[in-house]
Every structure is written in structure tokens, then in C-alpha cells.
Design a protein that fits this description.
Blueprint lengths: L1 E4 L11 E5 L2 E5 L8 H8 L11 E3 L5 H4 L2 H6 L5 E5 H45 L33 H7 L3 E4 L5 E4 L2 E7 L7 E9 L2 E7 L21 E5 L10 H18 L3 E5 L5 H16 L6 E4 L1 H11 L7 H11 L7 E3 L3 H9 L4 E5 L9 H8 L5 E5 L8 H6 L4 E4 L2 E4 L3 E4 L9 H8 L8 E5 L3 H13 L5 E2 L6 E3 L1
Parallel strand pairs: 3-4, 4-5, 5-6, 10-11, 11-20, 12-15, 12-16, 13-14, 13-15, 16-19, 20-21
Antiparallel strand pairs: 1-2, 1-22, 2-3, 7-8, 8-9, 9-10, 17-18
Helix pairs in contact: 4-8, 6-7
Bound molecules: zinc ion.
The site of zinc ion has 4 residues, from loops.
Length: 499
């Protein structure tokens, strides 16, 4: 058995691990790296292995940082099947189409900025000549022009990583499976998926390979969840020779969910008292948005508030919410009860989904009070950027940060207390109130990971920690060694391990 790690090694995005076992090469996840727009483009534009050599993909869940490079994999020669649960397959279609649209818009944005920078650079040269100044750095062509913007513009034209037609070519490759059902990728290699309690359809992966007359077992956590409203609790992990675990919150504990809902309740109350302005909630369209709506329903009911409209400004979130309702097998009892109440029209939560860009822009002009839930969760793309550009400088805006904010993202800068931020190429002063609500996380925290992993320490020959920044996974590695794991590794990018 051989493992290669090609992403999510000191970071929580771009999950991509190659497993060579039982005579086959299988990709566990094929995720997009997410972060600063320019950095993202560079890090996503290719693979360090030949896509045509991969026999199959096993996908834990539909989040783009786990699935977002699948259309590139297919375009670059992958011809195998992509195995996932039925709910993941259902979510993959709108999510990958949305991702293709974002790639296109990002490329347009970066190219536009490139043109702008060229024009500014030329003007500066002309201005210098007029004043008789000698430029220290002279450049021969436009492409050598120095960057004058806050961050460097791209030197060459940027092409989208993939297009809608690449997504259309990828979708027929999906093979849906039920939790607990074995499927074979070769005569000596089989897999099954188990409920990971993270988002709809999310799984952890169990694998058995026959090699040199013995069976080697591997378990991969994907994104391992926690008991939370709506979804069932994660199924406990099985013992295995090799474990690969996420470590997003390897050194942090979440506040109790009830406390977090209380924080959101206070924010709603502040808005209700103010009678104007907006509560902006940047959220992943899949998973987090539904959880937020679920909590808002509860809060508005308890506070008897029925005059604050809730807008979900994300076409993807609308599709995802519809898909969520079609998979009651993933819900817990309490969620089913609240869902039935919402369907009967008795809930005070009246959600309005905005579909068109024009409807989305109209929200910007409206004084509020209103709650706007919009993607992306890390505030790097999507319609939330327009809401932030309009609202971040106003003290009547409150921004509820309900998800993990990776290094280098706009979300992280706001959480870190930046006094001004660049949004869509313009500088804005930050006067909005920023409230961080960590308890909405759909990831197990340190104690949750220790609880899941410690009971299976004894038979484990090697545990690999991925999907976590080093300040989270290194302390977790130390604790796991103390808890009885013989070998815990924090692999670097492109690292290869043989067993
Ligand atoms: Zn996830």
C-alpha cells in the first residue's frame, strides 16, 4: 500500500490523496485549494500525478474543497468512476456548476485587473517622462510592467480552470452508493462509506486491500462531524492498520451549540432593537445555510419576532436546501419535527430566496432591518462580497462569522480586526460589528477527534493528520501519541509513504 498527499497538508482546503493498493490507484477526494484569488489560481492549475493513471475516485462529500477539481481531472484524462453517496451525487451537480461559474467570473476579474494595471503602468511612465524623471526599472513590453496594485496582477491572461461543459462531462462518471454497502474497485480492493455527520451525504471511508496474501485496512475520516441539529450523529470509526484523519480543530474546542445559538439570538435582538441595517451571515451554501435557517426558525419563534425578513441570497443554497428536503434519511428526529412545522406554514421564519442578480442588487438598496444569508462562507467570492462592499463601512451592519476562515481570506482579515479591507478592488473602512460564532462548526473539535480516534489506537500502525493548519494538527499529533498511537505523521505536500 502506498499513499501520496497532494493537498490539505498545512491547510484545510484542496484535499487530494492518492492511494495505491490492491493493484489500483485511487484518489481520495479531488478538492480545490481555496484562499486568496491569485494564489488560488496558481495552486489549482494542474496535478502532480497523471489523471489518466487514476482508476477511480472515492469522494467523502460534496464540499468544493473536496470535490472542486473533479471536472479538471476528467478534462485531463481521468476515465474511471467517482464513488460517493446518493446525497453527495445529488449535491455535486449544483455545486460543481456553481464552481464553474465562479471560475469564469474569477478569470474575468483577474484579467480585468490585469488590463487596468497595464493602463495605470503606462500612464505612470508617460507622467514620469513628462516630468523628465528617469525610471529605475524600465520595461520593454507591457508584460514586464511593474504591478502597481496592492497585490500583483497576473502577467498573462487567466483562463477559467474549467467550464460548465467540463462539469457536464464529469457528472455521468458518478456512481452513487448507500452507507454501509461494499463496492469493489478491483478484485483486491473494496470500499464502503459510513455516515460522518458533517453535511448531507458526508461519509468517512473504509477500505480493504488484499496484498501479498494479507488484508490491509485503511480508514479515512473525510470531514468528521459532530452531534449537531438536523443531521444524524457520526457513526464511530472502525479500527484499521492505516488511518487518515482530518485535524481542522485539532487544538480547539467548540463552545456548546446552545451558547452559539444564544449568540445568534443576541445578534437578531440587536437588529430588532435597531430597526434598521442588516445582519449579514456569510455561510457555505451547503450545510451551514440550512443549519442557520434551522436556528433562526427557533430564535424567531422563541422571541415572537415575525417582522424581520430572512433572505437567502444564493441560487446554490436554494438548490441545496431543496436537495436537503429530499433526503429525510439523513435527518434526526428533532429536525424532522421542525421541518414538518415549517411545511405546515406555522413557523415565523419566512425565507425568501433571491434568484436573479437584479433581486440580489435590490437588497443592497433596502434599509433593513433584514437578515441576509449568502455565500461564500470565507467571503472570497460570490454575492456576499457585494453585501459586504455595501455594508462593511456602516455601524448598522453586523457580520456574523459562523464558519472557519482560512489564512489569507477576507473573512480571516475581518476576524483578525482589520480596520480597512479591500473588497472587489476597492478599499472600505470597517465599521460593522463582527461577531464570531464558532459553535456552528460541522467539524469535530479536539475532544471530538480524540473521542473518535483514541479507541482505535492499538491496532493502528500509522495515523496521518491532514486537513488542518499546522498550529492545529501538530498539537493534536502530540496528544494522539500520548494517547497510545505508535506513529502519527503530519505529511507535507507531495509526500509519499509505503507500507
Ligand atoms: Zn466539508
Amino acid at each position: 500500500m502506498e499513499l501520496e498527499f497532494h493537498g490539505a497538508t498545512d491547510g484545510t482546503t484542496g484535499s487530494c490523496h492518492v492511494l495505491r493498493a490492491g493493484g489500483k490507484s485511487v484518489l481520495l477526494e479531488c478538492g480545490l485549494f481555496q484562499g486568496r484569488r491569485d494564489d488560488t489560481y496558481k495552486r489549482n492549475s494542474g496535478f502532480r500525478f497523471a489523471p489518466g493513471d487514476i482508476d477511480a475516485v472515492v469522494l467523502s462529500h460534496a464540499h468544493i474543497d473536496h470535490s472542486g477539481k473533479l471536472p479538471m481531472l476528467v478534462r485531463m484524462g481521468f476515465e474511471g468512476r467517482i464513488h460517493a453517496t446518493g446525497a453527495t451525487v445529488a449535491l455535486a451537480e449544483p455545486m460543481l456548476l456553481d464552481s464553474a461559474m465562479i471560475q469564469l467570473k474569477d478569470a474575468e476579474f483577474l484579467n480585468k485587473r490585469r488590463v487596468l494595471e497595464k493602463v495605470r503602468a503606462r500612464r505612470e511612465v508617460r507622467e514620469d517622462r513628462r516630468r523628465g524623471k528617469q525610471r529605475l526599472s524600465h520595461f520593454r513590453s507591457d508584460d514586464d510592467a511593474p504591478a502597481l496594485s496592492v497585490s500583483n496582477p497576473p502577467k498573462r491572461e487567466i483562463l477559467p480552470l474549467y467550464l460548465e461543459e467540463d462539469v457536464r462531462a464529469t457528472l455521468p462518471r458518478f456512481s452513487p452508493h448507500r452507507w454501509g454497502e461494499w463496492f469493489e474497485i478491483g478484485p483486491a480492493l473494496r470500499f464502503r462509506l459510513h455516515d460522518a455527520g458533517h453535511i448531507l451525504g458526508a461519509s468517512w471511508v473504509e477500505c480493504e486491500a488484499r496484498e501479498r496474501g494479507r488484508t490491509v485496512r485503511l480508514c479515512f475520516t473525510g470531514d468528521y462531524g459532530r452531534p449537531q441539529p438536523i443531521l444524524r450523529d457520526p457513526v464511530p470509526l472502525e479500527p484499521a492498520d492505516i488511518l487518515i484523519s482530518e485535524s481542522t480543530y485539532g487544538d480547539r474546542c467548540h463552545p456548546p451549540t446552545d451558547d452559539t445559538e444564544a449568540q445568534l439570538e443576541l445578534a437578531v435582538e440587536r437588529l430588532h432593537k435597531r430597526r434598521r441595517g442588516k445582519l449579514l451571515i456569510p455561510a457555505f451554501a451547503v450545510g451551514r445555510t440550512q443549519h442557520i435557517l434551522y436556528s433562526l426558525a427557533h430564535i424567531l419563534e422563541r422571541r415572537k419576532i415575525d417582522d424581520i425578513p430572512v433572505y437567502v441570497d444564493s441560487p446554490l443554497a436554494k438548490r441545496a436546501t431543496e436537495i436537503v428536503y429530499r433526503h429525510p434519511e439523513c435527518f434526526d428526529e428533532q429536525a424532522l419535527a421542525r421541518l414538518r412545522r415549517a411545511e405546515s406554514g406555522k413557523s415565523r421564519l419566512k425565507v425568501r430566496f433571491t434568484e436573479s442578480v437584479d433581486d440580489s442588487k435590490l437588497l443592497n438598496q433596502m434599509p433593513g432591518p433584514m437578515i441576509v444569508v449568502s455565500a461564500s462562507g470565507m467571503m472570497e467570492s460570490g454575492r456576499i462580497l457585494h453585501h459586504l462592499a455595501w455594508g462593511v463601512a456602516s455601524p448598522d451592519t453586523e457580520i456574523a462569522v459562523v464558519g472557519y476562515q482560512a489564512h489569507g481570506t477576507l473573512g480571516r482579515r475581518l476576524v483578525d480586526g482589520a480596520s480597512e479591507v479591500n473588497i472587489l478592488g476597492m478599499l472600505h473602512a470597517v465599521r460593522a460589528r463582527i461577531t464570531v460564532m464558532n459553535g456552528f462548526s460541522a467539524h469535530a473539535d479536539r475532544d471530538g477527534l480524540l473521542q473518535a480516534l483514541t479507541p482505535i489506537a492499538a491496532p493502528c500502525k500509522a495515523l496521518f493528520l491532514v486537513h488542518g493548519e499546522n498550529d492545529q494538527r501538530l498539537p493534536l499529533a502530540r496528544t494522539l501519541r500520548e494517547r497510545g498511537f505508535a506513529r502519527v505523521e503530519c505529511p507535507r505536500n507531495s509526500a509519499t509513504w509505503k507500507f
